[in-house]
């Protein structure tokens, strides 16, 4: 794991040592096991290394291969090492000592610009090809590691974080107004639909699933991975599907345990993180290592206000998993003195941009901090699981059966569903019918996120047309099925934004956050399965429930009644600082810069509704959401103004 940087002058002007020191000096806020640079005339590559895997200990980066005349700097963990060794003809005696960056170089030598297609793992890298006078790089398919760049006047500069680029005198801190506009109008948790842009006009990013080539005065970006969910796998039985899943998922989990440090995992009371923990614990037991789990729980005096089907304190389910799986050292963390408001400045410093996940900000960072304190090098999670291993909502599946008029199958399935869910027939039929035939929905049934962008600002940036052209509906008028939503997840790259926080948090805390549910092999397998593998015999999320028999306790595996509700205690946490929250919101409501960006009347109405009587359920309310997003943006802009 590393922070990488570099400069390439295509006009062959020598790279200034001052510029090298400025870029590498920007990484000094992060811990490092080694810091090195490669410089030759008009090319500079740098690496601020943190050793995580056994092969990374003592690794020389940037690495110059004198025989091939190639130089690489990399922020990478490659998971399909054994397959690559076989394809590339690396003998058994050499395999143990080869670093992931050297393996990438071998792949580049064989496949040239097609090499990212052959790599499985989390990575961003840049290779200087001396013979071809070409700079080539790539970012992994999911964008798990960041890679920013700037190009102008035959200068190309890149870095893992934005700060090194802004340290260069020829790159300004000018805010990207189009990015801000998209941030404001998109209801979802991702920031923009423009996957190339950043919050700074002069800083771009290599998107997920893309490679980049700088050669002959030109910069070329190419998408190298696309998913096709139309090809379906046909096996003979449930057992064969389950066996194949366990094999692929175990490989994905095991490949992510490669560290000489401790292995940790985030753990909730659900199927996704529980499955990750179960498969990881088994493999670690063979290695005579213990798995360390970290679980967020609300404060002791919090009263759960959520519906009966939701549960804020998942500790009983978590403990059930821990006891059943074994080989686990568990930690339960309530972060008593942490609040979303206190976290804002620290998160802005880490992310280098505004963010939306304020509900979970305090416990996400808290878990990183605690895991780092305990010496964890790899922190597992199951964040992508809803779209891969635990995909499958019964209502969505039944709506498709009804729409296709497969009535016999529909009635057989739905009758079993009533019994399992212990729910009313009429209510289920209504839900299924509404999804199958969305035109019958009345306007009041359609959720529309409140728009709080300044109307003139929206018009100037043409933001509404831009998001529509990128396939995003923000009006709530289009009702999509879960299958359509899932296909969009793997079609549109703007959904793949987790790499920003994962990369930057990892550098701050010297640990690598890894998600086996987001493994390329796991995704391709899950997308290839027929719908009946995900919902059958009245059971939703059927594949993972069947496949984890003897891996997870039935209390978790067969839980059809409760779902976890995280981050719902934020009003409770903020009660002692509510006056501070009010004063800061009032400050942004009177700020001239903010008035040009947001609709102050919309914000003021939202503020009036909650300012004097904050209720626990306001934690998930749109009023709090638009106020907190505006406040985070306000504080970010103030930081930029101060730094100027």
Can you describe this structure?
This protein folds into three domains: 2-162 and 203-223, Aminohydrolase, N-terminal nucleophile (Ntn) domain (Glutamine Phosphoribosylpyrophosphate, subunit 1, domain 1), CATH 3.60.20; 238-390 and 497-564, Rossmann fold; 570-643. Helix content is 41%, strand content 16%. It is built from 26 helices and 19 strands. The strands form four sheets. Strands 2-3-1-9-8-10 form a six-stranded antiparallel beta sheet. Strands 4-5-6-7-11-12 form a six-stranded antiparallel beta sheet. Strand 4 (63-65) and strand 5 (70-78) form a beta hairpin.
Which CATH first-tier class of the largest domain would you pick? Alpha Beta
Number of helices: 26
Structural class: alpha/beta
The number of distinct β-strands equals 19
**Domains (count):** 3
Oligomer: single chain
* CATH architecture grouping of the largest domain: 3-Layer(aba) Sandwich
Outline the biggest β-sheet.
Answer: 6 strands, antiparallel
Gyration radius, rounded: 25 Å
Distance between the termini: 31 Å
Low-confidence stretches: none
**What order do the strands of the largest sheet run in, or round the barrel if closed?**
2-3-1-9-8-10
Key terms for this structure?
single chain, 644 residues, alpha/beta, Glutamine Phosphoribosylpyrophosphate, subunit 1, domain 1, Rossmann fold, 3 domains, six-stranded antiparallel beta sheet, 26 helices
Present the secondary structure layout.
Elements: E1 2-9, H1 17-25, E2 34-40, E3 43-49, E4 63-65, E5 70-78, H2 81-88, H3 92-95, H4 100-111, E6 121-129, E7 134-139, E8 148-152, E9 155-159, H5 163-166, H6 177-185, E10 204-205, E11 210-215, E12 218-223, H7 238-255, E13 262-266, H8 271-286, E14 291-296, E15 310-311, H9 315-325, E16 328-333, H10 340-351, H11 358-373, E17 376-380, H12 394-403, H13 407-421, H14 425-436, H15 455-461, H16 463-469, H17 482-491, H18 498-509, E18 512-514, H19 520-527, H20 542-547, H21 554-557, E19 563-564, H22 570-574, H23 578-589, H24 592-595, H25 600-610, H26 622-643
Parallel strand pairs: 13-14, 13-17, 14-16, 15-19, 17-18
Antiparallel strand pairs: 1-3, 1-9, 2-3, 4-5, 5-6, 6-7, 7-11, 8-9, 8-10, 11-12
């Amino acid at each position: 794991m590393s922070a990488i940087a570099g400069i390439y002058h295509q006009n062959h002007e020598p790279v200034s040592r001052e510029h090298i020191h400025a870029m590498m000096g920007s990484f000094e806020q992060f811990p490092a096991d080694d810091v090195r640079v490669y410089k030759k005339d008009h090319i500079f590559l740098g690496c601020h290394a943190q050793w995580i895997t056994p092969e990374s200990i003592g690794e020389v980066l940037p690495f110059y291969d004198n025989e091939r005349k190639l130089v690489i700097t990399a922020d990478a963990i490659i998971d399909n090492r054994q397959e690559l060794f076989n394809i590339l003809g690396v003998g058994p005696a050499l395999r143990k000592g080869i670093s992931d960056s050297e393996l990438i170089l071998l792949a580049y030598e064989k496949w040239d610009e097609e090499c990212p297609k052959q790599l499985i793992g989390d990575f961003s890298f840049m290779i200087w090809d001396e013979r071809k006078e070409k700079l080539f790089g790539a970012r992994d398919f999911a964008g798990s590691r960041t890679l920013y760049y700037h190009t102008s006047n035959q200068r190309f500069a890149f870095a893992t974080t934005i700060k090194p680029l802004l340290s260069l005198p020829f790159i300004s801190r000018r805010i990207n107004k189009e990015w801000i506009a998209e941030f404001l109008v998109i209801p979802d948790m991702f920031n923009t639909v423009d996957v190339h842009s950043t919050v700074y006009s002069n800083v771009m990013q290599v998107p997920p699933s893309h490679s980049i080539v700088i050669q002959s005065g030109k910069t070329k970006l190419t998408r190298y991975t696309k998913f096709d969910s139309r090809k379906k796998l046909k096996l003979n039985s449930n057992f064969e599907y389950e066996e194949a899943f366990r094999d692929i998922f175990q490989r994905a989990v095991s490949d992510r345990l490669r560290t000489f440090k401790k292995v940790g995992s985030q753990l909730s009371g659900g199927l996704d993180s529980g499955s990750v923990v179960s498969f990881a614990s088994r493999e670690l037991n063979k290695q005579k290592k213990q798995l360390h789990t970290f679980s967020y729980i609300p404060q002791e005096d919090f009263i759960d206000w959520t519906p009966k089907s939701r549960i804020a304190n998942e500790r009983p389910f978590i403990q059930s998993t821990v006891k059943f799986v074994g080989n686990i050292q568990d930690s339960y963390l309530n972060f008593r003195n942490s609040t979303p408001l206190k976290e804002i400045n620290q998160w802005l410093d880490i992310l280098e941009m505004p963010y939306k996940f304020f509900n979970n900000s305090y416990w996400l960072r808290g878990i990183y901090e605690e895991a780092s304190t305990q010496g964890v090098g790899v922190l597992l999670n199951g964040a992508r699981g809803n779209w891969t291993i635990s995909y499958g909502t019964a209502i969505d599946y039944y709506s498709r059966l009804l729409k296709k008029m497969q009535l016999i199958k529909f009635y057989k399935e739905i009758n079993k569903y009533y019994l399992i869910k212990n729910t009313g027939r009429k209510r289920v039929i209504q839900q299924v019918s509404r999804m199958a035939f969305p035109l019958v929905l009345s306007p009041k049934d359609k959720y529309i996120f409140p728009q709080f962008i300044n109307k003139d600002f929206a018009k100037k940036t043409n933001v509404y047309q831009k998001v529509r052209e990128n396939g995003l509906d923000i009006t709530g008028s289009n009702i999509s099925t879960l299958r359509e939503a899932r296909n969009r997840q793997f079609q549109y790259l703007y959904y793949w934004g987790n790499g920003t926080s994962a990369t930057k948090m990892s550098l701050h805390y010297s640990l690598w956050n890894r998600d086996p549910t987001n493994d390329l092999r796991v995704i391709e397998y899950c997308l290839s399965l027929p719908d009946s593998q995900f919902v059958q015999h009245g059971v939703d999320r059927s594949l993972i429930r069947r496949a984890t028999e003897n891996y997870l306790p039935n209390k978790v595996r067969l839980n059809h009644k409760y779902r976890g509700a995280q981050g719902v205690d934020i009003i409770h946490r903020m009660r002692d600082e509510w006056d501070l929250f009010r004063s800061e919101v009032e400050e942004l409501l009177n700020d001239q810069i903010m008035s040009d960006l947001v609709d102050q009347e919309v914000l003021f109405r939202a503020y009036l509704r909650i300012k004097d009587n904050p209720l626990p359920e306001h934690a998930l309310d749109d009023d709090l959401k638009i106020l907190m997003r505006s406040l985070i943006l306000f504080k970010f802009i103030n930081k930029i103004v101060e730094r100027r």
